[in-house]
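Q: Can I see a sequence and its folded structure?
A: Here is a first one.
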Amino acid sequence: MDTTLKPAAVLMSGRLAGTVVAFSIPVVLARVLDQTSFGTYKQLFLIYATLYGIAQLGMAESLFYFLPADPGKAGRHALNSSLVLVAAGAACGAALWAGRERIAAWLGNDALAAGLPWLGLHLALMLASAALEIVLTARKRFAAAAVAYAASDLARTALMLLPVLVFRSLQALLIGAAAFAAARLIAALLLLKREFGDAFRPDRVLLRAQIAYAMPFELYVLVEILQSSLHQYAVSLHVSAAAFAVYSVGCLQVPLVDLVAGSTGNVMMVKMAEDLRDGRRDAALMVWHDTVRKLALVFFPLVGVLLLCARDLILLLFTARYLDSVPIFMVWTAAFLLMILPVDGVLRVHADTRFLLLLGALKLGLVALAVHWFIVRFGLLGGVLVTLLATVAGKTLALARIGRRLGAGPADLLPWSGLASTLACAVGAALPALLVKESLGLSPLPSILASGAVYALAYASLAVVLRAARQRPTGVSVLEAQR
């Protein structure tokens, strides 16, 4: 394993372990809480996720640049970022406490008012420790960063679920979340102090440089977060907390999706940047083709299995109370097909950040203008449909831009033949799996296992047949060989 992939694998192992553990939180809560309380939980943590991304102000991410570039001043850069994050967290916490009644009224859920102060405390403490894993990664402490990711998610899961299992209330979960964030902050301060010693101190001159670097990136992050979360806020404004619970279950985050796409995209960026630096534009195009092909090999069959098992999966994880989430989940899952196109990475390699910002603004505008009509016309399904439409539009525009950057026309921009054969295998494998699923009529878990096994076997068989067909010599070649 090379020096680039080995650290990535170490980090991925820690993040994967933590993600798998944390995935149990909504699964357990869907069973413990009634639908209205579960919807309130989803609304609260939608607010948290939005503010957590925006309020970092790019300061945590800036450490990926400043710590390797200036190791002698790493401690000062780290504390500067932490102090800004503390201030941002305090401001967010105060705003959520002061605006709790207005936010609850805006989202049409009075129960939010009681939870927002606790959420604000959790957010403030989490922001204050946001730099921990980034510092360890930037200083090549990959194993320590992996442990920090995994241990943090494990502790978060335990301290959020144990109180709600004992007291059966959303308030208990929020208190547990605040307790976890406080413990994480204490651990982060101790680790960072041990990492930097007396060098862990503020520096005003360096702070100005950090802010100047972080602000343009923060603008891009702001647009991306608003664009990706707007459909959830729009649905929340139109429906009750219980209905929002159904919608949020349909928008299920499959743990491996972002992990695989993000890791593969990062490797692509490193290789492509080297090729472009050395003037090898054709090689950069081949790296793009190879990345798209590899992602298709993962996401095409993954989407096939998820669509095939959608009803069983929702029943298994969230019970029959959330069966109305199935159509939403199927559309949401279909959007994973677009993950095979890591267009952001290519544009970032070309330093085309202005176009990325413009693209994000266009997608945000499209969702903002159309989401109300889609929800009125299609109900809960409208939220994911308009998001899918914006994603398709964004990917299409980005591909056109990439074609110009790489000097590739429509016929050469994507590995069309490889994508077509992979898609054919994914679609063809669904037919025997569907027949087995419908004929057996099993309960959810056995049904998922049986149909998934048949799908995998059929997919692998079709892939072998197609590969053999592509490698088979033509009639002319056979005659020439006989001569």
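Q: Show me another, different protein.
A: A second, unrelated one:
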Amino acid sequence: MEINIYQKVGSFAENKDIAKKIRIKEILPILDANSDIILDFKDVESATQSFIHALISDVIRKHGIEVLDKITFKNCNITVKKIIEIVIEYMQDHT
């Protein structure tokens, strides 16, 4: 299953409420069904740390850090990739 982030938030991913909605209505049900997921960041120029945190931190908290084996972060530019890495590192230190 693939989720196009740009279609939901545009080129700047900053709205935590949208991230939470994506997490609850799309990411968690897919993972709960034991399926893999692709988060496609094509055309997303930047994201806030709070957006990425709202998108994936609760997923990691509920499923453990190994859930990252089931999530692919696709088409991330260097900025978005760095923010995702920061959030993942934070979650590894605090779970």
